[in-house]
Amino acid sequence: MTSYCALLRGISPGKPGNDKLRETFTGLGFEEVCTLLSSGNVLFTTSSAKPARELENRIQQALQQQTGIGCGTILRSRQELQALVEQQPFGDLSHGKTSYLTVTFLKEPQDHSGTQFPAEPLPHVQILKYDDAARALLAVVDQTRGKTPDYMSWLQRNYGKEITTRTWRTVTKVLTKLPDPN
């Protein structure tokens, strides 16, 4: 069994609703399905040996057919999230009203070896690193100097629409709720 979190892009509270999301995932044969928060975090286990990309495509098609929402779907396994969290990439920094610690998950891997990130982000954003294993960009957004939506627009311009962002707090919460099949 493998535990996954489906990180859905473009889900807002109440639309399509956590009950419908759970129903869709259960209908696909996934087990231990639960949702976390109302922003498109669906946790599940599967005995399928299919690659994550195939599972992402199945989920995305089912969501489109059953809810009419063509949201993006990015999967990360419990192992991938645990490896990221164990690194403690934000060190002593803490998430709060004035400082958001963000993790942007990308569907496609990026090659940032020896190169700078695309175009300097906004002055209120500090990109800490790109994590190859998690395929994630880690950044701090200073809410006193700018707003998160400006950063989201920058991310989309530079990385496209096959991305989704979560706060570090949400990522760690997802990890604590994901079933450990061992």
TrEMBL record:
Classification via Pfam families = DUF1697
PANTHER family recorded: BLL4334 PROTEIN, DUF1697 DOMAIN-CONTAINING PROTEIN
Protein name (database record): DUF1697 domain-containing protein
Q: Which InterPro entries match?
A: DUF1697
Q: What is the lineage of its organism?
A: Bacteria, Bacillati, Actinomycetota, Actinomycetes, Micrococcales
